[in-house]
Design goal:
The strands form three sheets. The protein has a five-stranded antiparallel sheet with strand order 9-12-11-10-13. The protein has a four-stranded antiparallel sheet with strand order 1-2-4-3. A four-stranded antiparallel sheet has the order 5-6-8-7, with no helix packed on it. Helices cover 43% and strands 22% of the residues. It is an alpha+beta fold. The protein folds into three domains: 78 residues; 66 residues; 107 residues, no CATH class. It is built from nine helices and 13 strands.
Length: 288
């Protein structure tokens, strides 16, 4: 980090802070021989009108060197103990994870640091520095990928055809398509703003006409929602990426289990933003 500042005598310069490491400090002192430690600020003071710019450039070089070193270590780790799977492709500078679509795979890959989705090639890119983290999640990723192979999904559909489980799934899907949610008429959510719900995640409520919610429907589909006897239906839609980016997370940063709706936490917003980005990317590719 860097910040334009002075040393108390109107001397131009910038304060500079970074995680302590003996070798990093040595490289810093070599690059900035005039830098001095400030005990009051607990930071280095780098003199000069362009100090902030020079420090930012140094940070970028350090980050690139650190990542390169971490990638080399990760590649060595892979070469020593490789994960052999048809869903994992080792390339020269990164790994690629290629699986059938699975919500479990998406959730697991989002837990892998620096993993990114390549929407053009439909693969997950993972730098070698994240190999150890990927290996911790791999068993769940591979199991989910196998379950979602076309042949396996076909077998499950045929096995479930006409079953109670299939009928229940269709009824749940039909209820979701109605885009309604039980609300407390005395505590309606703000309309037009993303809020968190227990059944459908982050949504935007767009209205409430006061229609009473059927207790049987509440029991069947919203048993985990803390509704009251006088609950009414609210109408909702999915939140756009732009709305989610502008939404401030809950200040407390914690969940409230007994709330029908609440302000989302930063972790919930991150998940919702990634999902919204994927939806909008899909629409841009298909034109729908």
């Amino acid at each position: 980090m860097s910040k334009e500042s002075s040393n108390g005598n109107d001397r131009p310069g910038a304060t500079a802070t970074f995680p302590y490491d003996r070798m990093t400090v040595e490289r810093f002192r070599k690059t900035f021989p005039r830098a001095r430690w400030n005990d009051d600020l607990k930071a280095w003071f780098v003199p000069g009108k362009t100090a902030a710019l020079r420090f930012d450039r140094w940070v970028e070089r350090e980050r690139a060197q650190t990542q390169t070193h971490a990638d080399l270590k990760g590649r060595d780790s892979f070469d020593f103990d490789p994960t052999v799977s048809k869903y994992l492709r080792p390339l020269d500078d990164h790994l690629e994870v290629v699986t059938p679509y699975s919500r479990t795979v998406v959730d697991e890959m989002r837990e892998v640091p620096f993993a990114s989705w390549d929407s053009d090639r439909r693969v997950w890119r993972v730098p070698y520095r994240s190999y150890d983290a990927l290996r911790c999640h791999w068993s769940r990723i591979e199991d989910a990928a196998k379950r979602n192979e076309p042949e396996e999904r076909k077998k499950r559909r045929e096995a479930n055809r006409g079953s109670e489980k299939e009928r229940a799934a269709r009824v749940r899907a039909a209820e979701r398509r109605r885009r309604r949610y039980p609300l407390d008429p005395e505590n309606l959510p703000p309309f037009g703003r993303p809020v968190m719900t227990s059944a459908y995640g982050v949504v935007v409520f767009i209205g409430c006409d006061g229609e009473p919610a059927d207790p049987e429907i509440l029991h069947a589909f919203y048993a985990d929602v803390p509704t009251s006897a006088d609950a009414v239906w609210g109408q909702w839609r999915t939140a756009t990426l732009a709305e989610l980016v502008k939404t401030w997370p809950s200040r407390s940063g914690s969940k409230v289990d007994d709330a029908i709706w609440r302000q989302p936490t930063i972790e919930e917003l991150r998940v919702a933003r990634k999902a919204a980005s994927g939806r909008e990317g899909q629409r841009s590719r298909t034109g729908v």
